[in-house]
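Exam prep: given the inputs below (a chain plus magnesium ion), describe the expected output before reading on.
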Amino acid sequence: MGATKLYTPPGYRILDVEGLRGLVSSLSLRSQLGGDPESWDIVEVGDGNLNLVFLVKGPNSGFAAKQALPYVRLVGDSWPLPLSRSHYEHAALSRQAEHAPGLVPAIYHYDETLALIVMELLDAHVIMRHGMIAGIVYPEFADDISTFLAATLFNTSTLAMPAEDFKGLIEEFAGNTALCKITEDLIFTEPYMVAGNNRWTSPWLDGFAEMIREDADLKCAISRLKLKFMGSPEAMIHGDLHTGSVMLTPEDTRFIDPEFAFMGPMGFDIGAIVANLLLNYFSQIGHEETAGARDGYRTWILETVEAVWTLFRCKFLDRWEACESGDGYPAALFGDPFGSAALARERGAFLDRLFQDTLGFAAAKMIRRILGIAHNIDLECIEDAEIRATAEARSLMLARDLMVNTECYRDIQAVSAAARRINGLAPALRRP
Ligand code: SR1
Ligand code: MG
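Solution:
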């Protein structure tokens, strides 16, 4: 990235702990916290790639405050990034709250100039990625995420929306181009070529990285997916729905951080979560005390992958069957018995295509986390490089097959069966 000048609007400043204390003490939120501003406990805890995140606690309550920086935090100010992502995050959170109430954090305050969203403190919750590294089972997760996906994707598509409203939504999110460009470059392009941002567990994975760069079938498949990502405004998608965008307890789940939201392909969100569950599945070799100690957890992960898709499919179909407001398949065309039987088959075919998209996008998400710039802590925290590379190589093997031979996977059980089989293979690693 060249040294581009950072643009910040008048009134924007990067907040620190004292800056936030001063700001909050002038807002009505002050009384919600209670006590004297000096007594508030404020810490910056952001560990993501892009933003600042503060936790603010007073004697009566607390909240979380997320501020967009004018650059990519992971890299620094040599990589500018527009603050407008905060606007899109706020817009998406508001829509998600409407369609999936109780599954996103409540918003308390939004400051467009400061690119600051103040929201509910999820103190009892942990980032799902961390919970899964610790081997915690989340019995409600599959039900909650399938509800979230079915509700947000169906209701923001033109299966549910009249055409005019749907086009309004496309317009509302059309400007989030810089965040889309990150995805277009970092997920769909760079891992498949020589690029300065890329890194991997070297030399162990050098052969895999080379094979992927020379794999014409894979490069056609990823480009097909990129085209779909850029040119298919099917629904308002979260856009970055990995397990770092989920905060939960065993009883309660919230989806956070939709700053990548735009009108895109539904399979991108479903694929993101499937990918991150599978990456964690393969990473378990690096988290168990003794070989096989996490087998029960592995089983739970794959059962969860299956449940996410199966429940999503049912919930999406239920919504579609109950809805007559969308312009996509006008109800007026399908009122007679032949029409309704044909529509039922059509819905099934739609979900079958969405399943294929989901697998392709899941594969893309897996490959980028191993060969691209932004890796997952699930794998990164494995200190032994050979063990880490083994988990990563297995992930790449499954991802490559999912992306190139997608149509061979007729159902989600075929995916978990392939993951189980590949997890027993010894990948050919390059030794130092
Ligand atoms: C440079 S930003 C890298 C990644 O961070 C976000 O979480 C998105 O996944 C993005 O691709
Ligand atoms: Mg994020």
